[in-house]
Amino acid sequence: MTLTAPPAARPAASGPDLTRAALSGRRRFTNHLATSAIWFAVLLAVIPLALVTYTVIAKGGGVMSLSFLNEDIPNSYRREGGGMGPAIVGTLLITGMAALMAIPLGVFGAIYLNEYGKQRPLARVIRLMSDVMTGVPSIVMGLFIYISWVLLVGEQTGFAGALALACLMLPVVIRSSEEMLRLVPDELRQASMALGARKWKTTLTVVLPAAISGITSGSLLAVARAAGETAPIIIVTGIVFSPNWNLFDGSNTALPAQIFRNASQPFEAAQDRAWGAALTLIVIVLGFTIIARFISSRFAIKER
Amino acid sequence: MASNDTNLTTRPSVAVHAPGTTISGADSANASVMQLRDVSVYYGNYEAVRGTSMPIQQNQVTAMIGPSGCGKSTVLRALNRMNDPIPGARVSGDVLFHGQDLYAKDVDPIQVRRRIGMVFQKPNPFPKSIYDNVAYGLRINGIKGRLDDHVEEALTKAALWDEVKDKLRKSALALSGGQQQRLCIARTIAVKPEVILMDEPCSALDPIATAKIEDLIFELTNDYTIVIVTHNMQQAARVSHYTAFFTAEVDEAQERHGRLVEFSQTGKLFTNPADKRTEDYITGRFG
């Protein structure tokens, strides 16, 4: 750790003036302006985030308790107490089932698009369709599942909700996974190929592990979005007041639907439950994020 | 940096194998493991390399030199069908490996690449541990037996074992560029190919790392046949027994094609080239 001569030892007069004061006033002004604008933008972006978090915690924290998490939903909005147990069960089951359907399908779809289909006509059509599908409003997806599944089976079920959510997640998973696969350097594929690996082996053992953490993040965004979907749940899963652990038999409910129903009541007890449900939902999504990050960090080998 | 392991000290230094060193009876004693006969490589309608014919001698180093865009890498990649996935790429003529045309209909490119491995310009270790990088080829090729022994053997041959033996489970990406490239060589030799193709393996490395790789190349000729593409004429003169000089030429239709100008023993090509274009290139008058 030998340092060269300290700057002060250098005769000040001989060298060029490197201090900030030497900059022209206009440049200094522009620099300050840009920096302040960036800080202002950051603050502006954080305000809604902080306010939402604060409000939900402040209002939902009051009703939060262990009994709120596992008690049944009162079948009268007017009644105080009770909990969101059935909605938590419903959210976990429905979102979980939707993820189970959409993520493998979406990842395999992305593998086809990026590794096999590339610019072939079929791949282009799939890409276009999934872009279109991303733009389909969730309520339209709910109605689609109502017509094509609920009317067919004859009852509203949790599984119908999972189907609708899976349809909403699928295009997001496909496109985000494809982007992540595209980021995997071609050199790795070539290296594997030059060792005599078949394409599926290369994809499975080199490309996918290299992209896994990005794919996990993308899929997680899709799960988080699906967990908050309200409209399709209301349309295709109906409502229950005690937990229904069976996705295939009978109606179910989920937190977003309960937030909507309870928040639109004039009774304070119902509104409190809505805030509590909102807080629970945020915490659940946060939990998903943490779990997924943990899993992907176990998968992916560290850079250093 | 230099390892003092006794196993490795027998490695001859590069200087021993100076340019012009004649390989005793090279032409007669060594069988050619590969043979190119009038090989042209096309990308779509564009003929990137035209009519190349040359042998690749067993357990010798064959260098391909020439200016940028002369098609030397293209020819190299044609030797183990690495051009296959490029849309529109095709090869005419015969690329013979032990007398068998690699581009015959019933030839499986996977089988070709298991016998003819490749090391690339940029070190490209998998984002896995050092151990898994070397074991990868063994695993996918279903090589049974003690994986640990195979990995140690390959790393030792690649002159990397002493530097990494205590951190086999660490990420390969933490190694330096030169170590990464030797890891890539270890990965390639682990599956025991007959021929190793090297596409400018030292162009991303500093002189010390380059010297190590060159030592290694010389050492590897005991077991393997090596074809190396290089920009660096001194390198070709140092490491190779045979040299092929390529250049790009513009034909009547104003299209550039890579062409093989001269192929001969390295000593002869650098001291007494038969072709004027070779002489101009190696004396620095062109390219």
UniProtKB/TrEMBL annotation, chain A:
It is a multi-pass membrane protein. Its main location: membrane. It is found in: Cell membrane. Keywords: Cell membrane, Membrane, Phosphate transport, Transmembrane, Transmembrane helix, Transport. The keyword Membrane applies. Residues 88-292 form the ABC transmembrane type-1 domain. This is Phosphate transport system permease protein PstA. It comes from Micromonospora andamanensis. The gene is pstA.
From TrEMBL, chain B:
CDD domains: ABC_PstB_phosphate_transporter (cd03260). Gene3D superfamilies: P-loop containing nucleotide triphosphate hydrolases. The keyword Translocase applies. InterPro entries: AAA+_ATPase, ABC_transporter-like_ATP-bd, ABC_transporter-like_CS, P-loop_NTPase, PstB-like. GO terms for molecular function: ATP binding. Residues 34-273 form the ABC transporter domain. The keyword Phosphoprotein does not apply. Keywords: ATP-binding, Nucleotide-binding, Translocase, Transport. SUPFAM superfamilies: P-loop containing nucleoside triphosphate hydrolases. PANTHER family: ABC TRANSPORTER I FAMILY MEMBER 17 (PTHR43423:SF1). This is Phosphate import ATP-binding protein PstB.
